[in-house]
Input
Amino acid sequence: MAPRHGPRRARIAFSESAAKQLENITSEADIHALDRALVVISVDPDVGESIPGDATGPQLRQYADEVERVRLLYWISALRTVVVVAYIEV
Output
C-alpha cells in the first residue's frame, strides 16, 4: 500500500516587486519569520483576508502574522496551485 500524503501545498511565486523586496531582507530572524508565513499560505491559501477591489484583476488577499510581524499581499492562481506574493512586509 502506498504511503498517504497530506494535501498538496500551493507553489509560492513572487512578483517582480516582491522579489526585489526579498533581496533586501538580510536579517536571519526576518527570513525565518517570512518562511513561516509562506508555509502557512502555501498550506491554506484561503487563510488570509480578502481585500476589496474591482473584478478586473486578481482577487488580492492579505495575510498578517502579528506574532512574527509579517504581512503578505498575494493572489491565488485560478487552479489554486500557485500563490503569487505581491508585497512583503517584515
The chain has a mean pLDDT of 90.
